[in-house]
Structures are given as C-alpha cells and as structure tokens.
Amino acid sequence: HCEKLEQMHPRPGQSLQDRMTTEVVVHAAITFQAKRTLDVMQPFIKLLYSPGELKKSYLPTFPGEELPESVRTALGSAFNKCPRGHHYFISECGEIERHKCPVCGTIVDKKNDSTLQDEKLYKVNDSQVGYILEKPDQRETHPSSERNLSPAACSILRALVNACLVWTACTNENVTDDLLSLVGSNVQAIELPTFFWQHLQHDMGLLSLAVNKSKDDAYLILHLVLKNISKVNFPESSDMKTLSNLKSEEARAKWENSFDEAYIQPILKKLDYHVQEATQQLLKDKTEEQDFLYYTVYEKVAISPNTILPHLWSYRPRITLDHLYQILQTEKKDFPILHELL
C-alpha cells in the first residue's frame, strides 16, 4: 500500500522521521481495528472505513465556537480569518486593510493579497463540520488547546485522527471521493496521502513542543498512548454510542473528555516515568555495538567532553515558563491558582 506515498517506502536512506511516522500510522491502524467493537472508537473506525459519514460531524480537536453563546449574541458582528486560519473579530467599523493577526502575528494584507480580498466573513454563530484544517504550512506554529483538552492531549488526539486518514488515503481507493468531500478544500485526489501525512508530521512537531521533549520522544509518547488504548477496557456508557457520532459540538466535547481521561491522561500524568520506562526497554533490545548513538544520547556509555555535540541537547527538556505552562495545562485541576496566574 505504500506506493501511494513515497515517504512510507521502506528503503535504504529513508529519513528517521519518515520511518517513525510510518510506524505510527501502522500502529494506529492496527490498534483501532482491533478495538472496532467499542463505541468510543467509532470516530476512528469511520475515518478508516467510511470517512464520508463524518462529513457533517464535528471532528475531534478541530476548532469550534470560541465564544460563549451570550457573547456571540451580544457582539452581533462577524469574524474573518488570517492566512493561517485563525479567526479575529470585525466590529461595525469594518476591517482595516493591513494588520496583524492577534493569534499568530501573521500580516493580513487585504489590499495586496488577492486571496483575501474576496474572502467571506464568518458569522459569529457559524460552526464548521468535516475536516476544516487548511494546508499544513498554514497551521499554527505553537501548541494550542481546544475546549478541555490540554495542548499535549490536543496534539496527541489530532495526530491519531491524521494517522488514520493517512492509512485510509493510502490503502482504500474506494473512499477517495469520501475523503475529498470530508476535506472540502482545494486538495486533489492524488494529493490526499501527502496532505494528511504532512498534517501528521506537523502534529508530532507540536506534541514535541507541548511536552518539551525531542521529536523521538514525541513519537514514543504516541506509541505509549496506542498501547494504552490496546490494554484499557473502556467503561462503556449508554450514551457513548450517541456521543461518538459527533453530531453536535456538545457531543464532541463530551467524547473528547471521555477519550482523554481514559487513554491520554494516564500517560501524560506520569509522562517522565512512562518515557523512561519505554526507553529502558528499548535499550534492553539494543546493544552498544548495534546502536552506539542511542547509547550516547541516553548517556549509557562513558562520554568524554570532546564527544558532546550541540544537537544532543535536543534530547534534553528545556526549563522555561512555556514548559511550566504546558505542565500546568495537564495538571490544571490540581493547581488551578498557578494555572490562572500564568
């Protein structure tokens, strides 16, 4: 099935990131198919087999209404979008021709950018269904949260969505039209595998930033979540079948909370422990002769000062306010005051 996406070809010289992304795609497809009888897994099963059924559904982690109903009613005006897809408010005075997006800082030039001149205004009560992400290079560059999901949980869940779509685009020609209707943007059929692949790799970069760990560890974390999905018996409830249809924003939010609590938070709450345990297992499966670099990165061999290279620091978390903020996003229930102060 890999002939549709060159990056997935197992071959000499395949980049490490492409290999790790391929492994995640395969692991996700196998895991969700093995759990296909559970109601909570139905969004992923539909992504794998019948994505057209989600065309009018609110996909997990995707942006929704950002303002409370009372505020939307009071404003009574409209939003527009910057080139990266972030919404901003337009008052009755109208929109100035050149300004910065308040979210990402991108310059919005309505006068000189023909792609923005005729852009429709999005009314404040609009909600979008289906796969509403723009092109991967137009997405946010920093991890963000959606509803009750922390930035890390949001990155993980969106990566799982895109991993399923990569598998579907590469393995099931019969649903190509369904995928095109789901995406609903200027993406050609031949571009679908690469489109979802690039989104998945972007998700992994955001996860790396969200947890303040290397990209290698980010991929490892996704495998840990998939392993947790395989072994945890989800406590099915009577309303989960309805929620998993994702036909309303409320249903999506409740489904996200349930999935996050059952499968993602057990990993994130003891993240360092789980990553170190998995790393130790990987070290047991390798020998120093087989992978000297791996042993060097994790300091399992004697290292002289002359062998320390700058890029090795990418495997060490940086202690920053952003890192503290990401931790508090995960633990905000336990530290509500600190969370509010930041």
If you had to describe this structure to a student in words, what would you say it looks like?
The chain is mostly helical and 342 residues long. It has 14 helices and 5 strands. It has helices at residues 16-34, 42-49, 69-75, 114-117, 151-171, 176-183, 192-211, 215-231, 240-243, 249-268, 271-285, 292-297, 321-330, 336-341, and strands at 78-81, 87-90, 98-100, 107-109, 122-123. A hairpin with a 5-residue loop joins strand 1 (78-81) and strand 2. The longest helix has 21 residues, at 151-171. It starts with 15 loop residues before the first helix and ends with a helix.
Short description:
With 342 residues, the protein is mainly alpha-helical.
Question: What does the secondary structure layout of this molecule look like, with pairings?
Answer:
Blueprint: H1 16-34, H2 42-49, H3 69-75, E1 78-81, E2 87-90, E3 98-100, E4 107-109, H4 114-117, E5 122-123, H5 151-171, H6 176-183, H7 192-211, H8 215-231, H9 240-243, H10 249-268, H11 271-285, H12 292-297, H13 321-330, H14 336-341
Antiparallel strand pairs: 1-2, 1-5, 3-4
Helix pairs in contact: 1-5, 1-8, 2-5, 5-7, 5-10, 7-8, 8-10, 8-11
Mean pLDDT: 77
Globally, the shape reads globular
Radius of gyration: 21 Å
Q: What level of helicity do the residues show?
A: 40-55%
Number of helices: 14
Strand content: under 5%
Oligomer designation: single chain
Distance between the termini: 47 Å
Low-confidence stretches: 67-72, 113-126
Topology pattern, helix = H, strand = E: HHHEEEEHEHHHHHHHHHH
Largest sheet: 3 strands, antiparallel
Which class of secondary structure composition applies to the elements? mainly alpha
- Secondary structure tally: strands: 5
Strand order of the largest sheet: 2-1-5
